[in-house]
Design a protein that fits this description.
The chain has 415 residues and is α/β, with parallel strands linked by helices. Helix content is 46%, strand content 14%. Helix 14 packs parallel to helix 15. It binds (3S,4R)-3-hydroxy-2-oxopiperidin-4-yl beta-D-xylopyranoside.
Length: 415
């Protein structure tokens, strides 16, 4: 299905129907092709729900025997699939794609140029990248009439030559803005013209090459109101839908996302994000998904069941969700206990994404502790990613592999 202006409502409708409709038979799942760009694919583990539930209910002996037989054969089929996915797995990328999701990481242009191990690890492990800073307003716009696409183009070229999809991040935000923009108050019409030109130029520059854009980032405050930003002050609340419409005009093929932090699970902010996005959908604004950032720590993390419920309500209104910026900060020493607690948090988050039909990408905010934003935000925190500073896999890496290979699910199967 190729997403475009004309078929955007159709895609949303079909996603909703898929979420509610009958599940695909397990054997079919074994034959699913690699996921195509922007299409919903059935996923491995969730298909086990097509198997009879265990423990079996008390019914007649014959029915019970039939159900036992089915459960065991479903379990075997599922196991074979996971073994097949994972015996050949030397990186996260291939099992993730077989399970119907993209696995990604934020990347910085400088180490990509200067550190071969950074580039090798990225290309080996991931299927998607998000430029960590290079596509933000400030870095792209040193002055009002000059664009600097140098770093962003370098990341794009690397991604394309290594078969990585690119998530664009981000067109409208209140941070990392250039001084020329924030130095004065603009008349409303002029600020609208600046934003429109920015979105049209940047999205147009990467037309057909960026699979999904975080069009608007962090626009909603903790209390659910619209955050006080240069865009809200200067344009008013309609800046959000304007941005989505301009982005869609500039690249009708790109999926357009609203991205935010600390709205992953349950609560006031999550509800406010949902309500505002639902309103955009109902009014026909071209929006295709919601990014759940997932900047977590050992002590601050949403309940997996709450994240699942949140993902499901977006599925019900036809939207994808992507985990867009996951990291799990450790305060103090990275002891064995802390690293295994961190690993569990990563595994649970990926497990939720794999179980939600509409969760199509799981993106980390970096991949090596050598290049992570966390120590810059809090000097006493760090070790937030899945490779250590020497690019050695941490327990969190193994936990992601376990989740992809369904090892947890297999352990709980009835034989
Ligand atoms: C961060 C980058 O990682 C840092 O290098 C930069 O100094 C500040 O921004 N939410 C977002 C990301 O949407 O763009 C932020 O990235 C992290 C929080």
């Amino acid at each position: 299905m190729s997403p475009g202006k004309a078929d955007a409502p159709r895609r949303r409708g079909s996603i909703a129907a898929e979420a509610a409709g009958p599940r695909v038979e397990v054997r079919k799942v074994l034959k699913i092709p690699l996921p195509k760009r922007r299409e919903f694919q059935p996923k491995g583990i969730t298909e086990m729900a097509a198997c009879p539930p265990a423990p079996l209910v008390r019914v007649s002996r014959l029915v019970a025997l039939i159900l036992v037989g089915l459960a065991v054969s479903c379990a075997r089929v599922a196991t074979d699939e996971f073994i097949q996915i994972c015996t050949s797995a030397s990186s996260l990328r291939s099992p993730a794609q077989k399970r119907g999701i993209q696995i990604g990481a934020a990347v910085a242009a400088e180490p990509l140029r200067s550190e071969p191990r950074y580039a090798e690890t990225l290309a080996r492990e991931f299927s998607m990248v998000t430029p960590e800073n290079a596509m933000k307003f400030g870095p792209l716009r040193p002055s009002r009439d000059r664009y600097d696409f140098g770093d962003a183009d370098a990341i794009m070229d690397f991604a394309e030559s290594h078969g990585l999809l690119v998530r664009g991040h981000t067109l409208v935000w209140n941070s990392q803005l250039p001084g020329w923009l924030t130095a004065k108050e603009w008349p409303r019409d002029e600020l609208i013209a600046i934003l429109r030109e920015h979105i049209t130029t940047v999205v147009g520059h990467y037309r057909g090459r960026v699979v999904a854009w975080d069009v608007v980032n962090e626009a909603i405050a903790d209390d659910g109101s619209l955050d006080d930003t240069i865009w809200l002050r200067g344009i008013g609340p309609t800046y959000i839908e304007m941005a989505f419409r301009w982005a869609h005009e500039a690249d009708p093929q790109a999926m357009l996302f609203y991205n935010d932090v600390e709205g992953e699970g349950q609560g006031r902010k999550a509800d406010a994000i949902y309500a505002r996005i639902q309103d955009l959908v109902q009014r026909g604004v071209p929006i295709h998904g919601v990014g759940l950032q997932m900047h977590l720590s050992l002590t601050k993390r949403p309940e997996p069941s709450h994240v699942m419920a949140n993902m499901k309500r977006f599925a019900a209104i036809g939207l994808q969700v992507h985990i867009t910026e996951m990291d799990v900060a450790i305060k103090g020493a990275a002891t064995a206990g802390n690293l295994s607690a961190q690993a569990r948090i990563y595994r649970d988050a990926l497990g939720v994404c794999l179980s939600a039909e509409n969760c199509k990408a799981f993106v980390l905010w970096g991949f090596s502790d050598r290049h992570s934003w966390i120590p810059h935000v809090s000097a006493t925190s760090g070790s937030a990613l899945i490779f250590d500073e020497a690019y050695r896999p941490k327990p969190a890496y193994n936990a992601l592999m376990d989740a992809l290979c369904g090892r947890e699910a297999i352990r709980s199967l009835p034989w």
